[in-house]
Amino acid sequence: MSAPKLNIVPFVSVDHMMKLVLAVGIERFVTELADYIEDDFRRWELFDKTPRVASHSHDGVIELMPTSDGKLYGFKYVNGHPKNTRAGLQTVTAFGVLADVGSGYPMLLTEMTILTALRTAAMSAVAAKYLAPQGARTMALIGNGAQAEFQAVAFKAIVGIDRLRLYDVDSSASRKCAKNLAGMGFDIVICASGQEAVEGADIITTVTADKQYATILTDNMVGPGVHINAIGGDCPGKTELHRDILLRSDIFVEFPPQTRIEGEIQQLAADHPVTELWQVIAGHAPGRSGERQITLFDSVGFAIEDFSALRYVRDKLRDTGLYEELDLLADPDEPRDLFGMLLRAEAAQAKAVVG
Hints:
Layout: E1 8-12, H1 14-24, H2 26-42, E2 53-56, E3 61-68, E4 72-80, E5 94-100, E6 106-111, H3 113-131, E7 138-142, H4 148-158, E8 163-167, H5 171-181, E9 187-190, H6 194-198, E10 203-206, E11 213-217, E12 227-230, E13 239-241, H7 243-248, E14 250-253, H8 256-262, E15 275-276, H9 277-281, E16 295-298, H10 303-320, E17 324-327, H11 338-354
Parallel strand pairs: 1-6, 7-8, 7-10, 8-9, 10-12, 11-13, 12-16, 14-15, 14-16
Antiparallel strand pairs: 1-17, 2-3, 3-4, 4-5, 5-6
Helix pairs in contact: 1-2, 2-3, 2-4, 2-10, 3-4, 3-10
């Protein structure tokens, strides 16, 4: 990507994001993105960290997710509206910005609906890399909506999963998922219940959308030695796992102050012990330590993961050119003469009319 004028900001549209992902290759894209996430988690202590700023309503939530490593600043705007599917709309949509801390100027504006699905899948697989049982090949995927295929591809590329057991309360979602993943190297079974789906699974991924306290997994469904990737619970009052499962599990989280508000552990006491995943990745804390251990990644999504995704996309643009130049910032000849810039534009318009 050539260095643009500072007032021109690279913009990645949905069309360009799809072309970028396909040009790189979906598995390679998610694998390289996972590497960026791991790199940033290893320098976790450098980042500004705050729970996302959320505006909740009866219908859903709108959130801002900001962070900075001192050199770059990134944020994501994202919503979560489970009822949207009934109106033919996406449950989650997003866009993001990456900016230079030194000048405050944005360096990238990009769609993040597709990118969030990819980064969420990459994050799940990174966690499983450290927490799943050795040699895991079979994953139960409960909830087969917009996120499901991305999770499957990431777990195949990074963890080695090649057997999927699908379940959704809407069987058409499972059929859609199986169709989309056909020919990608999976042995796929569509199951009639969550209980059937978890039978023989090394990893259980729950990714449902209902905005409520739900019990997608009951205690009797979870045997020793499995890894649970719980990504559907991501706001206050929205969970997927029975509390007793949490009490039997070693729990790993992104940022505890956020997860205790939004994650599965909102069901537990505020001082219930958890391990921050960055500590495992950086080698400061153990991940999986025994064959019968139940590990739980209580994932709600954190701003540093989006920061990693923004960094990755910006780096990819240099080689692909898959962006538009957006005239986003006012750039007067004299920085203090913004009003004069407006007057000159007025004069130019008048001249054009006369001409």
